[in-house]
Amino acid sequence: MKHIETVQKPCIKAGKNTACGECQASCQSACKTSCTVANQKCAKEEK
Amino acid sequence: MIHSFKFQNRNVLLDVESGAIHTVDDAAFAVVNALERGLDPYAAGVDAETVSEVLADLEELKSSGAFETETPTAPEILGGSAIKSMCLHVAHDCNLRCRYCFAATGDFHGERMLMSYETGKRALDFLMERSGTRQHLEVDLFGGEPLMNWDVCKQLVAYGRELEKKFNKIIHFTITTNCVALDDEKIDFINREMHNVVISLDGRKEIHDALRPTVNGKGSFDIILNNAKKLVAGRGNKEYYIRGTFTRENLDFLEDVKALTGFGFDQVSIEPAVLPDDSPYSLLPEHIERINAEYDALADYYIEARKSHDTWFNFFHFMFDPDGGPCLRKRINGCGAGTEYVAVTPEGDIYPCHQFVGMQGYKLGTLDNRALRTDLQEAFLGCNVCTKGTCRNCWAKYYCSGGCMANAVLYGGALETPHEISCKLMQKRIECAIGIYLSER
Prior knowledge:
The structure holds two protein chains of two kinds. Chain A is mostly loops.
């Protein structure tokens, strides 16, 4: 493509191997108020 | 849905539903912006041949599933909803009197009191009962100031370790502390047992001391900095965050980040205060432009600082790992307040989260009856970025996940109405995070 560069392919995971529920609750991480969820880690990826 | 924005000298396109990110030249940026506004792309000030090329590029992207993708569906959580995270209010009292404290300087608008060991034990038992198949659990020792109830903190960690073996669970204990009452014994224990430590320190001495005085009205900066340095020095590779707060008194909060990193801390989080409009410290709509400019300046500083090992640091809200991030279900469900996450008070009352403690109508239950209000839990579960009108059409929905529900109730008037200023600041931080990611790759 001449005008566009893809720097990140689709990455929001929604397959059958997701939603294990083992990841950290976002508010427990650091902020305790203004949660960001995108900066949380997937518990499976972390392993 | 596409979100287009500029970061430094880059034109960025985010395909919201897939998470794909593209950088484009000025012509493509103008064309996409025209399309997004429902305008004729050939009237976007770009020559017709170039517009045609851009449209062909966009078609190619679309057919590859990386542009204007459909809203995906997420599987339900494995094993159903279970409580995996608990904020344990071991102390409804504090040795500081912070001007912006959401917890009414530690008592949560109630009686100043400490949690008994017995109540804490029952809370941990309750967590075991309600955690279903979840193996990883979290318990945050919180207050007020948890170090004011130190013996109980230690006893509860010991009890938690027993429960881990009995129920085959892993408990990540964390503590959120102002460090005033730290000593060597506490530091050793915390660094041995706590998965994460959140340390409250605002940055510059004059800012911190003005907003975080002791009970006697004196500054707390010097003692906290000294203790925090000792604590962090012994953390090794374990997690910690220096968590500051900014108010309208320090809209130049980049200076506070510089101060914190200058003290040697490399894990930093500076949060916007969320307060009623009539508070002298609240952030108001007229402050947003100034704050956004400060986030831009912080992003510039951050990128430069991280180029050198000596000045590298991590800013909580600029963390962004597209490949290692959470799955769609997590992004939809958000913080999990009231369903995956609860707070327990010294009296044994159970609330959806620490921010809801003391709010009329939001008590989920008590440790005595062990039953939780299912109507309230269903309300929380049903309130997510797919159901909230404001969030459904927001480009940042999968990154912020709907924001703080307690702030929605307190300042938006309902669970479904996010706090508008928080939304705008979140959007700005996410743009910066994506831009920084692009700069560093």
